[in-house]
Design a protein that fits this description.
The complex is a heterodimer of chains A (307) and B (259). Chain A has 307 residues and is an alpha/beta fold. Chain A is built from 11 helices and 14 strands. Classes of the chains: A alpha/beta (307), B mainly alpha (259). The interface between A and B is large, with 40 and 34 residues.
Amino acid sequence: MKLNMNLLSVKGLTKRFNNFTAVDDLSFELKQGEILGLLGANGAGKTTTINMLVGLTLPDGGKIEYFGKDFAKHRQDSLQRINFASSFNTLQGRLTVYENLIVFSNLYSIKDPKDMIDDLCKRLEIPDLLHRQYWGLSAGQRTRVNLVKSLINNPEIILMDEPTASLDPDIADKLLSLIEEFRESKKLSIVYTSHDMNEVSRVCDRVIFLSNGKIEAEDTPLGLTKQIPYAKVQLTFDGTKASMEKLLKTNKFKYEFINNSIVLITTKEKDIPKVIFTMSSGGIWITDIDIQKPTLEDFFLQVARKK
Amino acid sequence: MRIKAIFLEEIFLTKRALEVVLDIVVFPLINVILFGFISIFLQQKSSAATAQGLLMGSILWEMFRISQYTVSVSVLWEIWAKNLSNIFVSPLSDVELLTAYSISAFFKSVLMITLFSLVGYYIFHFQILTIGVWNLIFGFLNLFWFGVSLGIFLLGLIFRYGTRIQAVTWGIVFLLQPLTASFFPVSILPKFMQYLSFSLPPTYVFEAARFGLSTGQTHWDYQWISALLNLVYFFLFFALFRKLMNGAKRTGQFAKNES
């Protein structure tokens, strides 16, 4: 996909709550068709950033521009072209799904919204839910309805705050597939926050890692994992733990035993072949090798623990 | 279309929320019926005008309460449903939201004054038009206007301080009821309370209605004073609403209201 113009530009965004700086001079851009992940531990500033991006919280400093226009001055124009999905928000429980969607169609001034609602509900496989009250839906069904709501105005940007929280893996996987499909078919740009590193690695083109309201790291998911130089080699061996330990100590490897026949060796990624060769030629019978390359979660933990 | 959206949501919600029906139809109706019986009792013991004044006061009072309730409680439904953020990340402006709630409040108030007047007429033989057509129309509009203005101010308080102060939206009318002299003439209030009373637009409406009831004439002076005071309160409360809403967005409370 061609990623070109900036649809969202954030410059020096700052938010303080009394003496606490929740977002500190944050700057980033979102290109057309890009999915940008905002990662960070609890309190890192992700949700405050999203809240400022949709106008629910006023910034203390900095500038937000959508489509080249100042958000503070062109609030309505900007909001007409973006939308928001969060697992923390629901629609009116007393209303049916259809009634809720009609309300939002009108909020976004959609003329003849019935076809749009029918089409989106078909694509999200929920046409049979249209006349059910929202509060009677399961978490997975609600998430799909919320996604229909967030697509109702055919937005160019969607801000998603932990959209898969509280979903089971199957439903979460379907939702991610839908996000990928809509990104492709509608050239959607998405700002995506999540605590699930696997899904961030899967859907995000670029990740901004926030810590104490500041950008700690910014790269592709793969690029971030490459910042961790170490990998883990898990060896299952046939022999005594003592002889294995002796060999590990001789070669000055960093290791920990999982049990009497499995050891986990931490080494530089480039040294993995050397480790395997050394161990297998040391007189110990290796029955299984599992190489664990660094993941985004390892990066997350490294940064979080460093703090 | 955005105003229509919120108005539609109001209709859908009122249809399905028993609580709203209880609050704006059943409880006020019981109140009107109660005052109807009290007025019958008083007619037997004292003057008919005093008794009718009581029933009239209860009907008009509900107009004010329903308009205030509709404006300020509607947003609580959004907060309780965790739908407030969804509404406010749409292009809807605060003025559009308030306009939609005011239109909804107007229709509810008109429907209810019709219902209560019919109940007053058929059960208690009280004709609300006895106070005079213009007294009724201007009185209704002034009460509606103050109810909406107060509702807007309360809305600002809810945005700024969250649902921990939600009881104020139901309770404030009880604070204002004695001050606005809805069931008795202002003259029976202690002097210092009379000053307070005459600073509130509904007081003039109730006084004008009692005047109409006893003379059959419209008290234009009181209706105009009420309208002028309403103008002042409307701009004051709207300015406070804006200030409170900006404060809520600045402190982060607005986004936290749903959590």
